[in-house]
Amino acid sequence: MKEAIAILTGGGPAPGMNTVVGSVAKTFLNKGFRVIGLHEGYSGLFHKNPRMVDIDFPLADDIFNRGGSFLQMSRFKPTDANFENDFNLEFFTSNNIKLLVTVGGDDTASTANRIAKFLEAKQYPIANIHVPKTIDNDLPLPKGTPTFGYESAKDKGAVIARTVYVDARTSGNWFVLAAMGRSAGHLAWGIGAACHFPMTVIPEMFDKTTITVEKIVNLVVSSIIKRKIMGMDYGAAIISEGVFHALSDEEIAKSGVHFSYDDHGHPELGKVSKAHIFNEMLENKLKELKIKVKSRPVEIGYEVRCQTPVAYDLVYCSQLGMGVYQLYSEGKTGCMVYADSEGNISPLYLKDLQDPTTGKIPPRLVNIDSDEFRAIVNNILCYVTPEDYEAAKEYVANPEDYDFRKILNW
């Protein structure tokens, strides 16, 4: 029987999923392997009759440049009992599978870490290599290397945000956008920077103060006041949905949102419109201040996850897919595949990245101490400063409450 590999995709989609799967398949097929695709993420490993498909070269070639994921995804999170009682070892032995390739973000990587430990403890001769993806860009890759999917999602998000900004300028309105990013603000920050938005709010900015609903709203109001002083009656603000993760239960209650939670314990932010919530809170604040501004909400979320990958991700994901074979041929296992800016492949071991207590892979946050971040804050964002206090009194009695740096305690 031919030696085989199995590949699955977990979590939510990101541009480049099919590029990775197609590139992995093409590379291993060329080396004489059988390639088995598993549907429904990790759940296939814990059922007696997993949904599976043989991926041949024509199929790999057909899917590699498409958006979405040919392999149906799942957020299934196996329990310790699943590992002990339900792990389908027969699937591996009966198909002569030598390697499990997992493609996903932080939760998928954390589960891959558990599987690597499980296989090692049981002394099963099955290698495990993970390919890191997420449009959130929050996996801790070295030297700021992006996670695949981020550049494509940012590009599509910037197309939407750019159009919205033109609408704001054309109609004399403000728009409040919310962007995906559960643990970090990379996507919102990248889109805001690309479109020169006068205000971007991400959780990392609150490094010296407790994040509250009022502070989020006041940052946007600060930008509105500053633009009015500048003679500009329009603008747009983008807010990372990750701010909800940093809010206390009391603050979330103030926002009026009631979340359900997924298998990993994360609030299901996709079920509510964060832009609508932020916009409503802003409207209430502006009404209280008697500042006449029309604002509209725009959500940037599911629209960018299945975006057709841009050239950057097509090349990058191909490198990662081919890199899986390189690491496997070198005997590597229990690791993530990493491609640097020159395409050099090396392993990142999950056990070295994990939190020693929880075993989870910690998120990579936006570096607010970088020159890039500070340049945008100092030159692109618009907000109230002490020099604006006198002019700002035309709009608010207490302009210092809307001083950008005071709000953040910077």
Write up this protein.
This protein folds into 2 domains: 4-148 and 309-353, Rossmann fold (3-Layer(aba) Sandwich); 152-305 and 367-408, Rossmann fold, CATH 3.40.50.460. It contains 17 helices and 11 strands. The protein has helices spanning 17-30, 57-63, 80-85, 89-94, 106-121, 150-171, 186-194, 213-229, 243-246, 249-255, 274-289, 302-305, 311-329, 350-353, 371-379, 389-392, 404-408, and strands spanning 4-9, 34-38, 52-54, 97-104, 127-132, 174-179, 199-201, 235-240, 295-300, 335-339, 345-349. It starts with a strand and ends with a helix.
Return Rg in Å. 23 Å
Assigned CATH architecture of the largest domain: 3-Layer(aba) Sandwich
Determine the CATH topology of the largest domain. Rossmann fold
Beta-strand percentage range:
5-15%
Q: Report how far the terminal alpha carbons are from each other.
A: 64 Å
**Uncertain residue segments:** none
Query: What string gives the helices and strands in order?
Result: EHEEHHHEHEHEHEHEHHHEHHEEHHHH
Q: Bin the helical content.
A: 40-55%
Per DSSP E runs of 2 or more residues, the count of β-strands stands at 11
Number of helices: 17
Strand-pairing-aware structural class:
alpha/beta
Which short descriptors sum up this protein?
410 residues, alpha/beta, Rossmann fold, 2 domains, seven-stranded mixed β-sheet, four-stranded parallel β-sheet, 17 helices
